[in-house]
Amino acid sequence: MFAPVYLDHNATTPIAAPVLEAMLPFLQGQYGNPSSRHEYGRAARRAVDAARQQVAAAVGCHPTEVIFTSGGSEANNLFLKGAAVAFQHPGVLAVSAIEHPCVRNTARQLERQGWQLLELPVDGNGRLEPAGLVEALSAEARLWSVMLANNETGLIQNVVAMAEQVRGGRGWFHTDAVQALGKMAVDFRLLNQAGVHALTVSAHKIHGPKGAGALILDKRVELAPLIAGGGQERGLRSGTENVAAIVGFGVACELALARLEGLSVRLFALRTRLEAGLQRLGARIFAADGMRLPNTSYFALADLDGETLVGKLDRAGFAVASGAACSSANPEPSHVLQAMGVPEQLSRGAVRVSLGAETSEENIDQFLGALETTVSSLKNLTALSR
After folding, report:
1. Hey, is 213 helix, strand or coil?
2. Alpha-carbon dihedral of residues 129, 131, 217, 148, nearest 10 degrees?
3. Measured between alpha carbons, how far is residue 9 from residues 158, 204, 271, 317 in Å?
4. 147 burial via Cβ count (<10 Å: 0-12, 13-18, 19+)
5. Which of 79, 211, 228, 363 has the most CB atoms at less than 10 Å from its CB?
6. pTM of the predicted model, to two decimals?
7. Three-state secondary structure along 301-319?
């Protein structure tokens, strides 16, 4: 017997020990409000400012470009809705067909408010089709949102090349980098030079706490705030800062940056080992021919239901996902796989394995053994029922 194995790091990650250690004082004795002018408040302000510098260093931006939020979903909403209000008059909004629901659903809200929504199509590996980009450019899209790395397939989009094409127009370009941070280099300066105006990151994907994220925003872009109040975060996100979570986010960013190169190499080797075993079982690996995050493998086995597999693997001691955690209550097949043209029956069998810093070769071999046993059992049940 062995301890349960967590293989769902794209959904969330455990808080790292140094992160928790840094947070604890701000949950206990150092409880000041960063806006207060006494020493309690000044100590909290120094902690928030230090975390802002740590986040900025991890994503290659100036600290003043970091706007703290409650997470990635709020940051994405802040940019899209804030920009829509700032433009005053609706125009064309272009988002990729494989965006996270917090971008897709926000875009649909804006569509109901008069914006013309263009969903940019992708190919069989999840890469944006050039024709969709040309159409959006011809339509003079004013708002763009294309994720840097997909949360289901791990597919990395060439955002720099896209932004360079968009840059000549009047549009504002945003990228969701929540899944990318900690798994690949994220450089806002490089992206900004290409024409990216804003970028979203989140703490709990990199061994930080839930409830902290950031919108990295070009200082030349003026958004309308979603929350009115005391004027915190450059007036874009009012409300007393969640000091403990922000401190944890900063330390998590520092840790992620320090171990990025070595961890990426190790995760890629583990994923290669995993996918060799999956292919021996006859699995189809989605986006296999595209550039992907080193920790993510999204696959399906013909004629087997993904939810059933996930449930049986959970009982065997392995935590994996049938797709994005935020969509687990949705019985519909993955919108990402639908956009990629995957047949519905196969997409209903999709299972995502996302590796993390604690994952070992032994974990991979244990998982493959459990998967083989589970698949054999389900196929025998299917044969007996016929």
Report:
1. strand
2. 0
3. 23, 10, 13, 15
4. buried
5. 79
6. 0.94
7. CCCCCHHHHHHHHHHCCEE
- The number of beta carbons lying within 10 Å of the beta carbon of residue 369 is 12
CA 34, chain centre distance (Å): 29
158-209: pLDDT as tens digits: 999 999 999 877 789 999 999 999 999 999 999 999 999 999 999 999 999 9
Indicate the length of the chain as a whole number: 386
Is the separation of the CB atoms in 116 and 91 below 8 Å? yes
Nearest to 107 by CA among 83, 128, 125, 129: 83
- Write the single-letter amino acid at 292: R
Which member of 61, 102, 253, 326 is catalytic? 326
Give the residue from 18, 120, 131 showing the smallest Cα distance to 357: 18
> Rounded to whole angstroms, how far apart are CA atoms 259 and 266?
11
Query: d(Cα 323, Cα 152) in Å, to the nearest integer?
Result: 6
For residue 331, name the pLDDT band (cuts at 50, 70, 90).
low
CA-to-CA separations, 69 to 77, 187, 242, 270, 320, in angstroms, rounded: 10, 20, 9, 33, 28
Strand partners, 284: 300
Each residue of 21-54: pLDDT tens digit? 999 999 998 999 999 999 999 999 999 999 999 9
Q: List the beta bridge partners of residue 214.
A: 68, 201
Q: Name residue 232's amino acid.
A: Q
Q: At what angle do helices 101-112 and 72-87 cross, to 10 degrees?
A: 30
172-176 and 198-202 strand pairing: parallel
Tell me if residue 326 is catalytic. yes
For residue 259, which amino acid is it?
Answer: R
d(CA 372, CA 336): 26
